[in-house]
Structure to design on (155 residues):
């Protein structure tokens, strides 16, 4: 089992904990939770790719490559849906509390919100005009997004 699967599993654990101990509940909580789940789901592509690259077992490489092929057509849509859901979450939060940027949870949420827009932009760009640079931007921004979301949940 690749360590990234464990890290992703731990992130889902952090999400459940954050939802159980939230300050308040409302539509913004539901949208935030769904957005986080979709982001974690999309980020598991990294765990799958890493397993394919690093696994010594040819059998496992083939199994994961086949699995990967099956998910490719959905990846772009789960990612784009996550952007829309997160924008709703941000909008509902601002409607509820105002633009409360001194609050670290808000600030990190805002940065995560901007990052997911950049991740999706590079995702679409690399789909139509692939290049190594765009692939790396998509990957590193997605990694930054993953840790920003975990931080946003912990705060
Ligand atoms: C990648 C995007 C984001 C994800 C996955 C996400 C996820 C979540 C989740 C699951 C919660 C509820 C659990 C908790 O309170 O810890 C939450 C709360 C919160 N989020 Fe986000 N969020 C994101 C972006 C944003 C943005 C863009 C903003 C601000 C514009 C924001 C501001 C907040 C605030 C202030 C709370 C606390 C609400 C409360 O205490 O009732 N988040 N977020
Ligand atoms: C929550 C948002 C997203 C996350 C966390 C995410 C993450 C990832 C990761 C980790 C990879 C594998 C990186 C590699 O080693 O090359 C990948 C591949 C890719 N992503 Fe995304 N992505 C997101 C949204 C999107 C969106 C909206 C698109 C729109 C088209 C997209 C398009 C692609 C494409 C074309 C690939 C390469 C083909 C594939 O293997 O699926 N991604 N993404």
């Amino acid at each position: 089992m690749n360590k990234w699967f464990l890290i992703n599993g731990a992130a889902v654990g952090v999400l459940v904990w954050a939802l159980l101990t939230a300050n308040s509940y409302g539509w913004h909580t539901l949208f935030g939770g769904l957005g986080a789940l979709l982001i974690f789901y999309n980020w598991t592509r990294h765990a799958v790719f890493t397993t394919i690259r690093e696994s010594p077992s040819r059998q496992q490489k083939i199994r994961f490559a086949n699995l990967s092929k099956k998910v490719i057509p959905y990846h772009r849509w789960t990612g784009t849906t996550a952007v829309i859901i997160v924008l709703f979450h941000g909008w509902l939060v601002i409607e509820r509390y105002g633009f409360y940027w001194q609050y670290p949870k808000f600030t990190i949420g805002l940065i995560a919100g901007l990052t997911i827009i950049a991740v999706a932009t590079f995702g679409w760009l690399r789909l139509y005009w692939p290049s190594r640079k765009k692939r790396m931007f998509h990957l590193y921004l997605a990694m930054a997004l993953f840790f920003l979301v975990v931080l946003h949940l912990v705060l």
In short: The helical segments are 3-20, 27-54, 58-97, 104-128, 132-154.
